[in-house]
Design brief:
single chain; 228 residues; mainly alpha; 80% helix; disordered C terminus
Length: 228
Amino acid sequence: MWAILTVIAGLAMLASTVASGTLGEVAALGDCAVDGFIIRYELARDAADLVNVFGPAGDVCRPLRVDAMDALNRIDLFWFVPAYVVFLVCGGFFLAGRTRLPLAIAAGALALTAGVLDVFETLGLLAASPDHAPDAGEMTTIYWLATGKFGLLVLNALVLAWLALSKRSIARWIAAGLLCLPVFGLAAMYVDLRFISAQTLSFTLAWLGVLALAIGGVFTRSSEATVQ
């Protein structure tokens, strides 16, 4: 059951990513697109950071970026965040089997807490003033919500890596290795935001590793059921 639920949630998560890329507001950005758009907004600390994200007042790109940001955050809030939380919770129980349930519960708690922080952070981004220039207090709150979220997701990945090693197989060893990548991806991003793509790639590979194991688990169970 856990393998099937993990696959369903994982596919929903991937679908949300595809949907984000096909939004009309995102397509309208054209040359106004900014690498690591949402994360740069989440981690903005001052007015200069906000200008780097949206552009200065009167800039032709600013309204396009504001519209795209709101559209992407709505996708995050109502689709991506619920999907990744369910994926990580179910993935933990799938990897644990019946032998390491306390660790699976811990991994689930980390994922749920990260999801809650993500919801509050995204609501904060959406509730920012119409010109997307939150005050210093709002920016600080959003920054620490985002930082807490990322930290918890890294801890979750490490717990999942340990759970992946509960059974001996090359596929699980590879998945465990991939689940350690977010440690380095996150560290690189906080050293220099130019490494946002490295952070994103690290989580993508880590979660794809879990999804691949879950898909394999579904087919393995189907084969066993057919034989019986």
